[in-house]
Amino acid sequence: MAQVTFQPGGVVARGVSGESLFEIGRRNGVPISTSCAGKASCGLCRVVIRAGEEFLTAMGPLERRHLGNVYFITKQRLSCQARLVADEGDVTIEVP
């Protein structure tokens, strides 16, 4: 299983390929803001990818609508859209 570390709390959780950062966080008690429950319509579940972006899906059109095309600067993703692409690997994210 892949390992996801949620900062600043230091919660370490496991996830499998296809699972979103939002799902992993919620399952492990990490409070991630949302008003759409993970449907990418509100844009509130933003997180910052600190490490392991190569273990996540590429940014799609729903994320670009909310975040623009500046990931290379901000490293922000919607946690409901960023999904693990491998069953192994370490991802570190920062939840505002």
Structural account:
- The protein contains three helices and five strands; from the N terminus they run ββαβααββ.
- The protein has a single domain (2-94), classed as Beta-grasp domain (Ubiquitin-like (UB roll), Roll).
- The chain is 19% helix and 26% strand.
- It is α+β, with helices and mostly antiparallel strands.
- The chain has helices at 21-27, 61-67, 71-74; strands at 2-7, 11-15, 46-51, 76-78, 90-94.
- The termini are far apart.
- 29% of the residues are buried.
- The radius of gyration is 12 Å and the shape is globular.
- Strands 2-1-5-3-4 form a five-stranded mixed β-sheet.
- The longest helix has 7 residues, at 21-27.
Can you identify the CATH superfamily? Beta-grasp domain
Q: Overall mean pLDDT score? A: 95
Distance between the termini: 25 Å
Task: Supply the number of structural domains.
Answer: 1
Number of strands: 5
Largest sheet: 5 strands, mixed
Rg, nearest Å: 12 Å
The CATH topology annotation reads as Ubiquitin-like (UB roll)
The CATH class, by name, is Alpha Beta
Stretches where pLDDT falls below 50 for ≥5 residues? none
Order of the strands making up the biggest sheet: 2-1-5-3-4
Question: How helix-rich are the residues, as a percent range?
Answer: 10-25%
Architecture per CATH nomenclature, i.e. the level-2 architecture: Roll
Strand content: 25-35%
Order of helices and strands: EEHEHHEE
Number of helical regions: 3
Overall spatial form: globular
- Class inferred from helices and paired strands: alpha+beta
